[in-house]
Design brief:
This protein is an alpha+beta fold and 272 residues long. The protein has two domains: 68 residues, no CATH class; 200 residues, Sandwich (Immunoglobulin-like).
Length: 272
């Protein structure tokens, strides 16, 4: 009797069942049939078990992270805009009889340079917390000409920018360089370089400041924007809630004018 026929008996009544004694060749084939039929099932069981184990571990890891408190938050400080509400530096021209400006002359277009700074009170800003507009104290350096008017979005990032009062200017549209100090540039001047990345721990404050001067050829440069603020100390909950880019404002006066700065604080990640 072939081996396969022994496994096709569907009626187990004794009068239909013949005793079968396997031969040597039948035993070999029987082993193959058992291995062939059983191995896939055993492998499937192991595979299914592995999936269950991985899923269980991922669930445990997720629950652990959900209950854990981050130790460091990644915060973006983005300087959005500035508006120069007033400029107290009229042009030295001969006043006309109908001149509406009592100080004589027409209001000057400011020729400005400055620095935007963001730092954590403890962790700092990874050594790159300053964004410079032009070169501080050197408005005509690096190829700039005193006889040329450089607009806000000029490609000549090292030069002073010509601005008007009561106009809002976008920091992202101006070329800024990166450094750890206002006294120099460590990178090229770039557009959309108006965000400082901080790593803040609970209990720290975030300090933001803007210092802009108006360059004068015949006198000392005037402060037209010198403002700063400290946000904090910030708790873990407060840091975790910095998820939307809520507009914040700095406003203040200097000897040469008054400004209003818009900026945002935005959480971009956390380290556990």
């Amino acid at each position: 009797m072939p081996v396969s026929s022994a496994f096709h008996i569907t009626d187990y009544r004794s009068h239909d069942l013949e005793m079968w004694k396997p031969k040597k060749g039948d035993k070999v084939m029987l082993r193959k049939m058992i291995i062939t039929s059983c191995v896939p099932s055993i492998a499937a069981l192991f595979f299914a078990g592995s999936i269950v184990d991985v899923a269980a571990q991922e669930a445990r890891d997720g629950a652990s992270n959900a209950s854990a408190t981050p130790t460091i938050w990644s915060i973006d400080v983005t300087f959005r805009t500035v508006r120069f509400d007033t400029l107290n530096d009229p042009d030295p021209v001969i006043p006309l009889p109908w001149d509406p400006f009592p100080s004589g002359g027409n209001p000057e277009k400011g020729q400005i340079y400055g620095a935007l700074t963001a730092n954590g009170s403890i962790s700092g800003s990874d050594g790159a917390g300053v964004r410079s507009l032009g070169l501080w104290g050197n408005p005509t350096g690096s190829g700039c000409s005193s006889s040329t008017t450089y607009l806000w979005g000029t490609t000549a990032g090292a030069c002073v920018r010509s601005i008007n009062p009561s106009v809002t200017y976008d920091f992202g549209a101006a070329k800024l360089c990166t450094s750890s100090t206002y006294a120099r540039c460590d990178t090229d001047f770039k557009y959309s370089n108006n965000t400082v990345k901080l790593h803040i721990r609970p209990g720290e404050s975030i300090k933001t400041s803007v210092h802009i001067k108006d360059h004068d050829e015949s006198s000392d440069d005037d402060d037209i924007c010198n403002v700063e603020t400290n946000t904090g100390p910030l708790s873990a909950l407060q840091l975790d809630q910095l998820t939307s880019e809520t507009k914040r404002y700095l406003s203040g006066s200097g000897s040469g004018g008054r400004c209003t700065v818009e900026y945002t604080l935005h959480k971009t990640g956390a380290t556990y």
